[in-house]
């Protein structure tokens, strides 16, 4: 009986305060809607202030928006203080904010390349560090959104793959550090999900074709609903790992085999893409390309 009660408690987010970064659209906004429908109080944190306010207004009184860039310590601390003052604490943090650039290492714009690490990796560290005291106080849950790119490292995505792999490693270390404090840590690995980020990648004149040419399920784009179903269920059970779709978890078991397979598959496609990338940079400039 006690085990059953514990299971039900673990699946209940009613009256829990959930802070979500990158909550203006896509995965973040979708999770905010779903968790609020479960009775959670949701704090939306990100840089798209107008969009976030719109999402909060759609949800109703249980949601509120705070503007903050995850690369800005002071802004994150101010937003966190505001969430705690307004809602009384923080139970769950979902570090969802992320960006992506496309480009080969030898020609990509350096500033754009490094910005991905600032947002996707260091943004997770900053978000968790600032909110962790409040999550510890409530023996809560931290979830970072990594990616299938952390497992399969495709050409043209060196910074994104490295940042997302760093997120996974960071969460694995953190999990062991805070377990004795009653805090659980999860990491999510979505494959290609139909969001603005993936749509913009597909629209790129060079790398859109490279991505769409990936074989089988590796190149397939999944509906946002599929990702929200998995993450929603994962948050409710405070999951250690969330794989979207489930086959991503199976691929993790053989990840050591992936680099040589990806290299083999890239031999016929990367040389031409490399030339097209250089031509695109010449025409539009490195940052725009």
Provide a descriptive summary of the structure in words.
Helices cover 53% and strands 12% of the residues. Strand 5, helix 6 and strand 6 form a beta-alpha-beta unit. The chain is an alpha/beta fold and 289 residues long. Helix 2 (26-37) packs parallel to helix 3, helix 4 (73-87) runs parallel beside helix 5 (110-137) and helix 5 (110-137) packs parallel to helix 6. It has a seven-stranded parallel beta sheet with strand order 3-2-1-4-5-6-7, with helices on both faces. The chain has helices at 2-10, 26-37, 49-59, 73-87, 110-137, 158-178, 196-202, 207-212, 224-237, 247-252, 258-266, 270-284; strands at residues 17-21, 41-46, 63-67, 92-95, 141-145, 184-190, 241-244.
Strand content: 5-15%
Describe the main β-sheet briefly: 7 strands, parallel
Classified by CATH, the class is Alpha Beta
Task: Please tally the β strands and state the result.
Answer: 7
Radius of gyration: 19 Å
The N- and C-terminal alpha carbons lie at a distance of 59 Å
CATH superfamily: NAD(P)-binding Rossmann-like Domain
* Mean pLDDT across residues: 91
- The helix count comes to 12
Overall number of structural domains: 1
CATH fold naming: Rossmann fold
CATH architecture: 3-Layer(aba) Sandwich
Kindly report the spatial arrangement of strands forming the biggest sheet: 3-2-1-4-5-6-7
pLDDT < 50 stretches? 1-10
What is the H/E string? Answer: HEHEHEHEHEHEHHHEHHH
What attributes does this structure have?
Rossmann fold, 12 helices, 53% helix
